[in-house]
Design goal:
The complex is a heterodimer. Chain A is an alpha/beta fold. Helix content of chain A is 46%, strand content 16%. Chain A is built from 14 helices and eleven strands. Chain A has a five-stranded parallel beta sheet, with helices on both faces. A four-stranded mixed beta sheet of chain A has the order 6-7-8-9. In chain A, strands 10-11 form a two-stranded antiparallel ribbon. In chain A, strand 7 and strand 8 form a beta hairpin. In chain B, helix 3 links the parallel strand 3 and strand 4. In chain B, helix 1 crosses helix 2, helix 6 runs parallel beside helix 7 and helix 11 crosses helix 13. The relative contact order of chain B is 0.14. Chain B is of the alpha/beta class. At the A-B interface, helix 1 of A face helix 7, helix 9 and helix 10 of B.
């Protein structure tokens, strides 16, 4: 028992130390960070990360994040750099050297050559007085007060901090470049979430006979049957002109059953929710998801300006819980 | 050496070698300094733990600073614990120590280490330090140890510097660091409060804490009196600044073993660090006597075998 408690205590301490490491970075973000962002935005080349060991792994991850968000980036292994890979670096590039101590020999070795090439150098280091910091054009201080690992054998808090700072850089760059869902789709061609959510609703909404639909005046028995048949957990309620009047969901039915047992003979307008949230078919799937998440709903009627029903979307359908089909494909 | 640049790494909490008659064992002091100096990034003199600072009088402390600084000759920064029982006594000591450095023309770095809660409450500390720091051109390092305050006979309300007070104190440029013993939560709060002073260092004053979750500023170590080389290697490994040649294949497991060894060593002197370490140093003929300023308790068996343990493992 004691052993178990000790394990939990240790694990909590590690998380506490690492969380504190990130929190301490907040105050350190200042003009140099802004300058780094401007330097990258103003560069015609790529952002090249370099670092040894765990810092190298962090560099690879940040490079991957930048690549998928619109900033061309790559990783240069310092050891490979001195054996020819420096040839991939051009004067237009910005190099970000990650070294917590700032004394990593493999990194300090390649700095003079990088400077000779005329690249701009940014240091991600924990020691502002270290050689890596001194040789850099800009210093981003990612220093932490304490490592979580016994004897500091493996960098823990320091790599977490460097990674978080890299994310901060990536997010700021996204916003500065006004990265939009179209770009996201462009950089995620494998059919990822970005791909799904960047399409227009009209391309993915359920249409025609597949829309669960009942008219004002129909019974709840008929409505339940429609919901069951179309399998979206809800039915739209329309008038003769197909103008939306309301929505009946599984939740509405549950609540009615709790109030009175026999609802089968009721007319649908006695159970439906009036004034449901709706969206235009020209909006994107991302807009639909945002609206549904905000209002805590899972289906969304798609209507035109006259409130005539054009289709319906389900949250799971958009996020991948169900098969995601492009209309006409 | 740059002016007032705080070291990063191993600060040896030096024992104060005494003869059996209670004066400084100068030969022992020099021998001990010669042993630790090549491995140390700083030396703490008259510290409240190993240096027995609370049991040394003003004349003794002045002589200690004079002799130690003459030997160290500015090779590493010195830290000197200045806290006395009252504000007046502390200022008097500081004034005399300052006089020693001036009269000897000492140009090395000296940091005044102070545990304010020994003689002052949290209230009014900012104003007090404005006054104290104006007395000398040399910088200050705070020492926070609730355990030490408990030993002080006065019934003081708090054992720790309050976080918001520390935040205020960090506005005083001459206060440059803190040696901390206490809970992880408190030191995290302190770090948060000190965010606007990225140059402000927090040294671990607790060896066990340092070996578990090392502070990136370094450690004030008791055990380094006995095993300075191992403590230095482990500290540099923890701070990620080992030399190229020290990172041979398998060095991680070597560092791990060294860390375990230091924990075993700590177990042997933990109960009564000053007496046990002095006895071992005396048995190893580094200092003349295990004499302490306070009455010693009988040694337990494992404590009396510390010197044998060190000799057996060829510890330097």
């Amino acid at each position: 028992m004691k052993k178990g408690l000790s394990v939990i205590k240790q694990a909590r301490e590690v998380l506490e130390i690492e969380a504190q490491g990130i929190l301490n970075l907040i105050e350190r973000i200042g003009t140099e960070f802004e300058q780094a962002v401007e330097m990258i935005l103003g560069s015609k080349g790529r952002v090249i990360f370099t670092g040894m060991g765990k810092s190298g792994i962090v560099g690879r991850k940040i490079a991957a994040t930048l690549n998928s968000t619109g900033t061309p980036s790559l990783f240069l292994h310092p050891a490979d750099a001195i054996h020819g890979d420096l040839g991939m670096v051009t004067a237009d590039d910005v190099v970000i050297a990650i070294s917590n101590s700032g004394y990593t020999k493999e990194v300090t070795t390649i700095i003079p050559t990088l400077k000779g090439l005329g690249v701009k150098l940014i240091a991600f280091t924990g020691d502002p007085e270290s050689p890596v910091a001194r040789e850099s054009d800009l210093l981003i201080n990612v220093g932490v007060d304490r490592e979580a690992c016994p004897l500091g054998l493996a960098p823990t808090t320091s790599t977490t901090a460097a990674l978080a700072m890299g994310d901060a850089l990536a997010v700021v760059l996204i916003n500065r470049r006004r990265f939009n869902s179209k770009d996201f789709k462009r950089f995620h061609p494998g059919g990822s979430l970005g791909d799904r959510l960047s399409v227009k609703i009209k391309e993915v909404m359920v249409t025609g006979e597949e829309i669960p639909l009942v008219c004002i005046g129909q019974t709840m028995e008929e409505t339940l049957s429609e919901i069951d048949r179309k399998d979206l957990g809800a039915s739209l309620v329309v008038d003769d002109g197909l103008v939306l009047q309301g929505v009946v969901t599984d939740g509405d039915i549950r609540r009615s059953l709790l109030q009175r047992r026999d609802i089968m003979g009721l007319q649908v307008e006695e159970v439906m929710s009036i004034s449901p949230k709706t969206l235009d078919e020209e909006k994107t799937a991302a807009d639909a998801v945002a609206l549904m998440e905000y209002h805590g709903i899972t289906v969304l009627p798609i209507v035109d300006k006259a409130k005539r029903v054009k289709g319906i979307v389900h949250l799971h359908g958009l996020l991948g819980g169900k098969e995601f089909r492009l209309n006409g494909s | 050496m740059e002016a007032n640049k705080l070291p990063k790494g191993l600060i040896v909490d030096l024992v104060t070698p005494l003869t059996d008659t209670g004066v400084i064992d100068i030969e022992g002091l020099n021998a001990l300094l010669a042993r630790v100096l090549p491995q140390a990034d700083g030396i703490l003199l008259a510290g409240p733990q190993m240096g027995e600072g609370r049991g040394l009088d003003l004349q003794f402390k002045m002589e200690l600073l004079e002799k130690a600084s003459a030997f160290v000759q500015g090779k590493v920064p010195l830290f000197f614990w200045i806290s006395e029982d009252s504000i007046e006594a502390t200022k008097e000591l500081l004034d005399h120590l300052k006089g020693i450095l001036e009269s000897t023309g000492y140009s090395g770095m000296v940091f005044w280490l102070d545990s304010p809660l020994v003689y002052h409450s949290n209230r009014g500390l900012y104003r007090y330090y404005q006054d104290l720091t104006a007395m000398t051109g040399r910088p200050f390092v705070l020492y926070n140890d609730a355990g030490l305050i408990k030993l002080v006979e006065k019934q003081l309300k708090r054992g720790n510097i309050r976080t918001n007070i520390l935040k205020d104190l960090s506005r005083i440029e001459k206060i440059m660091a803190l040696v901390f013993r206490g809970s992880l939560t408190r030191v995290n709060n302190y770090q948060k409060a000190l965010n606007k002073r990225p140059d402000f260092k927090i040294y671990d004053g607790d060896e066990a804490r340092f070996l578990e979750h090392p502070s990136m500023s370094g450690i004030v170590s008791m055990g380094a009196n006995l095993a300075p080389r191992i403590w230095s290697t482990v500290t540099r490994a923890s701070l990620g600044v080992l030399e190229e040649g020290e990172r041979k294949p398998g060095y991680v497991s070597q560092i791990w073993e060294m860390g375990q060894f230091l924990k075993d060593l700590m177990d042997m002197y933990r109960r009564n660090p000053v007496w046990t370490v002095k006895k071992a140093l005396s048995d190893l003929k580094i200092i003349k006597s295990p004499a302490c300023t306070a009455v010693t308790e009988p040694f337990q068996e494992k404590e009396s075998r510390l010197a044998e343990f060190i000799a057996k493992h060829h510890i330097e």
